[in-house]
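Forwarding these from the shared drive since the link keeps breaking.
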Amino acid sequence: MIYWKFIKEYPFAPEEYDYPSPSIHQCLKVVDNSIWDDLQIPWRQIDNRYWVTFYNLGPYCASMFLFHEIQYHLERFLIENKQKILDDLSHSVELEDIIPPTALSSKRIPDELYFVIDILQDFQSFFPRNKISSTSSVPVSNLDWCTPKLKVLVEILLEHHSPTFQGIIFVEQRHDASTLSKVLNLLPELHGKIRSAFLVGQGVNADGVSTRTDFCEGDPIKLFRDHVLNTRKQIDLASAGI
């Protein structure tokens, strides 16, 4: 068996993108860090990963990562604090006029919770659900919202695509694997050609939506071997991937 290795050059990413404003990041970053702590959402870590994804893949991919990551942590918070939220709503309606708010509970759910929920709702039509299909109509209008690195990857996939094509893309970051898998299924240039999923190790202290395979039901390795999928993103900390 013969293996070929080639190198593709790509230009630096632009300093500015023609991307809709305000972005979801611009909306969420106004929330104070203490509020994120109260909501049990690790904003500092998520923000760092947002910028890594921004520089690697571009503003749309970074925004999509941010949307799904905040959504994941917020859903978990709501499930874990369901009763407390209901109690707070009950107190605010029935008791707040006669009992000072500080006396209702030692730790109230912050009002900013609903502000964050409103932001996610405003952007939900702009990003795919965690489990998506290749026919999703999410508006990824063109590659101008992606980095030159990602554009070159698309060119490589188109250049080597065939009816029997299969490929594995190695990346260094879990969130890049998760986001790249989604966006390759959405780009018009790859529509009908690429069916992608991602596979990552759980690692140590790994948390968030990007730690699990969320494109499709079933084992991505089996689906890849059965040719249901033809492209797989896999984290490889030893490689210098995308």
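-- next protein --
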Amino acid sequence: MKTIAVLSPGEMGNAFGGALKAAGFDIVTCLAGRSELTRQRAADTGFRDGGDLATVLDDADLVLSILPPEYALDAARGAAAALKSSGAAPVFVDCNAVAPATAIEMSRAFAAIDAKYIDGGIVGNPPGTGKPTRLYVSGEGCELVAGIGGKDIDVRPMGPEIGRASGIKMCYAGVTKGTNALHVAAQIAAEALGVTEALQAEFGSSASELYKRMESSGPRLPSVSGRFVGEMEEIAKTFRDVGVTPQFHLGAADVFRVLADTPFAAETPDTIDFERTLAEAAKVYLRHLPGGMNDK
């Protein structure tokens, strides 16, 4: 494999592109309709703008779909339709935070045109920010993807069954992002009840490491909360499909909706106020709660 298409070069996709470029791959993307910021970021990383989707797919040996989960299914169907028209045959890897059932639904679009589909799940921070990002992959031929691994991307094949890679992503994010939502919800409730300082003191004396995590993540969550809503809904779907209650993560989705409605949601990784405390953030979060709490 020489040319890898990344759809699309958002924060995670751009970081994947940078790691692949550094590993010697030609990286291409489709920038039609994207913002000037995204275009500039992609150019700085070394992406080629391949033009329309059909041309990008025709140019690629491997396609990585890295999108907010609510767009993943339509993107996969659109790619399959473009491949059917063009006759191109790259390996399509869906790397999005979707339920195993959603991954299986995607795979049918590619099976119908006899194209190769791989289920993928990204775990960890974007490549290049510390520990290698784990890319779990499953499906027939998933070992093909192992060739893109390097110092920043650790590809982990999980066998021929579609849904296994998405399954580990759902369970992992269900804990990490799900508990982030719980931490914020508790802090908002404490603010509403007027016990923020007492709660902080209790955590400081009995669970200081946990509170450090809450303090670190809670004030910065709004910038990514819009993407997390769909992910929580996919996790809820995953849990429901295996008989586990979906209510934890439907509630987490509600929390992330509140955060996405705050002014902090407009921040980018470059503009986040790292001096903002969790208590300060919670005061703003509380004012955006629906159902009568907005005037507090």
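The domain at 167-287 is CATH 1.10.1040.10 (N-(1-d-carboxylethyl)-l-norvaline Dehydrogenase; domain 2). The first strand starts at residue 3 and ends at 7.

- D.
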